[in-house]
Amino acid sequence: MDKNCIFMEIIEVLFYIGIGTILAYMIGSIPTSILASKFYFGIDIRDHGSGTATHVNVYRVLGWKASLPVRLIDIAKGVFAAKLSLFLTAKYGWYDGMEMSPLMMSFGLAAVLGHIFPMFAQFRGGKGVHVAIGVLLVLNPLASGICALIGVLVFLVTRYPNLGYVLASMALPIFMLLDKPQDPERALLMLIFSLILFVIMVLTHLNNLKDIVRGEEVKAWG
């Protein structure tokens, strides 16, 4: 195989990876909470409460009946984005012969960023928590369950849901370090993925963390 053929194959692979990343970002960009608040309640959730499109704000402003389906749909967005490479390979053969794990992680992160900076909602979205949960459910269900349990326990004790999200994301790379993987290369990728996810969660919840320190964060109850 000559150099031109190899070069064209590389370009083709990068093209398909780029298209997959854009598609995953677009999936994440579907502004579930904004659409639900507009179509069913006639408001833009970002104009009420904390001024964000987060599930916590949806719950506080519109109640659990509005919040629950929004959360589930966003988790489904993460699941679909993480499985997008598998779908595109099965349907079109785009990633035949390629390792799926890096693609699943990359597309998953693209969906999380799409949720935070949605192209369909002036780049003012949520904080990516439930999309990340969906991605993690695909990549490592056990880690997802453990982190979710930690998040719930922190929430129940402190009544700060955002603190639960951050500490749950902090537990993820710790779990990856303590785990004994059968595939060291995938384990390293998962550790990098979990650290990136943790940084994203800290950055998106930074104002909430500051408010908690100052005693200004609103508790879920009490």
Question: What are the key terms here?
Answer:
globular, mainly alpha, 222 residues
Main sheet makeup: none
Number of helices: 11
Based on Cα principal axes, name the global outline. Answer: globular
**Oligomer state of the chains in this structure:** single chain
Distance between the termini: 70 Å
Mean of residue pLDDT? 93
Structural class: mainly alpha
Low-confidence residue ranges? none
Give the tally of β-strands. 0
Q: Provide the domain count.
A: 1
From the alpha carbons, calculate the radius of gyration and give it in angstroms. Answer: 19 Å
Please write the string of helix (H) and strand (E) elements.
Answer: HHHHHHHHHHH
Beta-strand percent range: under 5%
How much helicity do the residues have? over 70%
Topology at a glance:
Layout: H1 3-29, H2 32-41, H3 55-62, H4 64-82, H5 84-92, H6 100-116, H7 129-139, H8 141-158, H9 161-178, H10 184-204, H11 206-214
Helix pairs in contact: 1-4, 1-6, 2-4, 3-4, 4-6, 4-7, 6-7, 6-10, 7-8, 8-9, 9-10
How would you portray this structure in words?
- It is a single chain.
- The protein is an all-alpha fold.
- The chain has one domain (3-214).
- Helices cover 75% and strands 0% of the residues.
- The chain has helices spanning 3-29, 32-41, 55-62, 64-82, 84-92, 100-116, 129-139, 141-158, 161-178, 184-204, 206-214.
- Helix 2 (32-41) packs antiparallel against helix 4 (64-82), helix 4 (64-82) packs across helix 7 (129-139) and helix 6 (100-116) runs parallel beside helix 10 (184-204).
- The model has no long low-confidence stretch (mean pLDDT 93).
